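Dear Dr. H.,

I hope your travels went smoothly. While you were away I took the liberty of generating a structure for the chain from your last submission, since the lab meeting agenda had it listed for discussion. I wanted you to have the full record in hand beforehand rather than looking at slides cold. The sequence, exactly as received, is reproduced here:
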Amino acid sequence: MTAARVAAVRALADDLRSISDEYTGTCTWALTDLVSGEHIGHNEGAVMPTASLIKVPVLVALYQAVHDGKLRLDDRVAYGEEHRVLGSGVLSKLSFGVEMTVRDAATLMMIISDNSATNMCVDMAGLNEVNGLMERLALHNTRLFLRLGDRSAGVDPRKMSVSSAADMCALFALIARHEAVSIEASEDMLRIMRRSDYRHELSAELPWNEMNMLPPDPRTAWVAEKGGSFLNGVRTGGAVMHGPSGEFAMAAFCEGGTGPGTGRGSEGNRMVGRLGKAAWDALAG
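The corresponding predicted structure, in token form, is as follows:
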């Protein structure tokens, strides 16, 4: 079983490289098989813009703050003018003063990628604390430079936040192994990310049904994920994929593609989706 699994992972590496080589820009990826422990990657140490994938480090830092007793998940917090930023999400369209729990803000940040909720979470966790935690976890390429909506970045995503496929894959693996913050925190982070309303990145080509579930049973087939997108072909995805045949952590980054397609049909989205589907078919489905 182990030898066959290792062989499957190594064969997958060749398949994933063949797929990513077709991208017209820069495509990097990393995968850790959580059954055999095998790790594969392609240009995985390259520093890349994260877009909304940086919200995963923010989530982990928020749960670290809870673990350290600085706040509680059921504390109530208010959405204010200082949090408001346009883009994905719903809070920017609501009235200031709307209250929610800390966990609710984290849930909005992850499952609909709410940018205003993200600023709430950054403020609660602390921007410097997010970066400090990534450094302690040896994720040296992962940095959040600015709160969302800070105009000093202009339209350069690399001035907002960066990471690498190796870093982000390692972070998802820590969460999957219940080694991020605590067992309870890791499980709750997985629970939130399994509820994603957006399946546009690594899991885009999986056989989701109309209930946003994977057949035959969501208890044995699920994906906990986060993705991101920005200008210049930036498309990112990170996930823990769990299926009847096994479980793995994966991250992929695209930048600068010039191929056809826009929005969710962009070359980057298609590329990340193809990588995720190939990995799912080989190791989990």
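Two observations you may find useful: The CA atoms of residues 89 and 112 lie 6 Å apart. The domain at 2-283 is CATH 3.40.710.10 (Beta-lactamase).

With kind regards,
E. W.
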